[in-house]
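Key result, reporting period 2: structure in, sequence out.
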């Protein structure tokens, strides 16, 4: 299995200006549109294991690097849940996607659910994997003692900017390891790509802003009862969220289907790409 995007999919990547950001996105295949929205501190490359398992003759795959992530630019804005949702909404309009299945993971899941709560007509259904909408100061602080220390310090005045910009490959790997069931899925090629992109201009500041805007992701849950589209909530058995938080989300979303993944942490597309691909395929006509 490839650890970063194969050349055939890299050639399907391009750039598009949306809401003041230059977004890198990939569009490949033909058929029912599936839009992939990644986690915090990653990028579309995290879905490579899922992409390899989907039939491009049946599926049009669309994935993007969110602002401040991957190869997209990092405009000087507040990185709230509402900002990300606005960007994705405008992105879907710009590329004229209709009846899409949104597959979001972590912050991507919260974005997808928020867009569904707006009753956006381009959204046919949502697969929300480990939505990142819980916890005090952000769920990632539950992943390990190191993550708790780092993401606490990021919020502090003065030193926070230095902490956000001081990432090394070793630190990145240790933090991400707290979000997977099996640390062996964190392959060197992917980690090198994530680390290189994290050093792009403005990306450290964007990460810090996202952390400081944590309350907006919790507040996004208040809109979930407005959702009308079919929703599948997916949680890894080793996700950072607690059963009470998962049950609360299920109760807020009308007729939501709940799926549990075994041997799976927060970064489910790394831990269980085959299971995620099967869920996507099951949503297609």
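The corresponding designed sequence is given below.
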């Amino acid at each position: 299995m490839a650890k970063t995007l194969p050349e055939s999919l890299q050639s399907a990547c391009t750039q598009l200006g949306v809401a003041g950001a230059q977004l890198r996105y990939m569009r490949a295949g033909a058929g029912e549109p599936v839009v992939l929205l990644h986690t915090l501190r990653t990028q579309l490359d995290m879905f490579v294991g899922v992409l390899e398992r989907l039939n491009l003759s049946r599926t049009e795959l669309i994935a993007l690097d969110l602002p401040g992530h991957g190869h997209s630019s990092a405009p000087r804005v507040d990185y709230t849940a509402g900002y990300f949702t606005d960007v994705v909404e405008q992105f879907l309009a710009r590329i004229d996607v209709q009846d899409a299945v949104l597959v979001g993971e972590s912050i991507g899941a919260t974005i997808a659910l928020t867009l569904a709560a707006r009753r956006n007509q381009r959204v046919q259904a949502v697969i929300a994997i480990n939505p990142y909408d819980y916890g005090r100061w952000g769920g990632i602080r539950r992943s390990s003692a190191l993550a708790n220390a780092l993401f606490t310090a990021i919020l502090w005045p003065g030193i926070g900017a230095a902490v956000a910009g001081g990432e090394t490959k070793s630190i990145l790997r240790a933090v991400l390891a707290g979000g997977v069931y099996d640390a062996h899925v964190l392959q060197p090629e992917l980690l090198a790509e994530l680390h290189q992109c994290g050093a792009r201009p403005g990306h450290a500041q964007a990460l810090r802003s996202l952390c400081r805007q944590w309350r907006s992701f919790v507040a996004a849950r208040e809109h979930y009862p407005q959702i009308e589209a079919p929703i599948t909530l997916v949680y890894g058995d080793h996700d950072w969220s607690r059963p009470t938080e998962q049950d609360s989300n299920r109760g807020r979303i009308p007729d939501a289907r709940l799926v549990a993944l075994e041997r799976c942490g927060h970064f489910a597309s790394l831990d269980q790409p085959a299971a995620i691909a099967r869920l996507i395929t099951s949503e297609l006509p």
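The domain at 7-136+214-283 is CATH 3.40.50.1820 (Rossmann fold). The chain has one domain: 7-136+214-283. This case is discussed further under Risks and Mitigation.
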